Structures are given as structure tokens and as C-alpha cells.
């Protein structure tokens, strides 16, 4: 339903922040402790679908001249998935110091700027409200 890939990324950002706020950060630590292989299996299963969706989004942005045309789309997609996994790493980002909103905004927007052409950066600036959350 988005008009462009930046807007779609903005809505993705909002969904991540909303979902992150609904999950206790200790949940992932407990899963890792009590069911060590389960989280990895879940990432593998859901990662394939998410990877395909991110690739489609990257191609859309490239076709519209919003993203750089020489991007390595599979690498970008996998990188985004890994960045999103970092949001759940409470050892790296303790909950007492880093909110999920702050991490999402601090990771997603700078990464997107790196993918953007000058046209994309202008569009990102115009649609910045999609990425701003209460910190």
C-alpha cells in the first residue's frame, strides 16, 4: 500500500517498534537458554520469507531511482535481517540503556541513507516522520 520503497521501509520500522514494545526482552534470552536451537530455526524459517520481501523492496527502490542501482541486493537483504536480530541482543544493547525504539531508529535510518541516491535521501527527509518514534 506504500507509494515508494522508503515509505514501505517506514511502515516496516513502525511494525518493528510496535512488536518490540510488546515483547519482554528476557523472552529471547529465555528461549536461547531453554531451547537453544529454536530461535535459530525460527530465524531460518522466517528469514527466507523476510529475505524475499526485502529483496523485492530493494529492487523496487532501485527501479524508482531511490536506491543506488549497483547494490548487491542479496547482501543488503541479509544485512537488514542481521541488523534486526541485533535489536534482540540484550547483551550488546542492555534494556536499561537502549530502548527498542532508539535501536530501531539508530540502526534502520542510517543504513537506509547509505542505500539511497540523492533523490532517495530527499524522499527519506520528507518522510522522516515515519521513522521518528518516542525515544
Describe this structure in words.
This protein is an all-alpha fold. The longest helix has 28 residues, at 36-63. It has one domain. Helices cover 70% and strands 0% of the residues. It is globular and about 45 Å long.
User: In this structure, how is the largest beta sheet organized?
Assistant: none
Low-confidence stretches: none
Number of helices: 6
Percent of residues in β-strands: under 5%
Strands, helices and their partners?
Elements: H1 5-22, H2 26-34, H3 36-63, H4 73-86, H5 100-115, H6 118-126
Helix pairs in contact: 1-3, 1-5, 2-3, 3-4
What does this entry show, briefly?
The chain is mostly helical. The protein has one domain.
Amino acid at each position: 500500500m506504500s507509494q515508494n520503497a522508503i515509505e514501505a521501509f517506514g511502515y516496516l520500522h513502525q511494525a518493528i517498534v510496535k512488536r518490540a514494545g510488546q515483547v519482554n526482552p528476557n523472552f529471547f534470552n529465555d528461549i536461547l537458554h531453554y531451547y537453544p536451537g529454536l530461535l535459530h530455526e525460527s530465524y531460518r524459517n522466517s528469514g527466507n520469507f523476510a529475505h524475499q520481501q526485502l529483496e523485492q523492496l530493494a529492487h523496487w527502490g532501485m527501479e524508482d531511482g531511490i536506491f543506488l542501482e549497483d547494490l548487491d541486493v542479496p547482501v543488503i537483504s541479509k544485512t537488514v535481517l542481521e541488523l534486526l536480530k541485533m535489536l534482540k541482543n540484550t547483551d550488546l544493547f542492555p534494556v536499561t540503556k537502549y530502548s527498542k525504539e532508539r535501536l530501531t531508529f539508530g540502526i534502520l535510518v542510517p543504513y537506509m541513507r547509505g542505500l539511497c541516491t540523492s533523490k532517495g535521501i530527499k524522499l527519506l527527509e520528507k518522510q522522516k516522520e515515519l521513522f521518528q518514534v518516542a525515544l
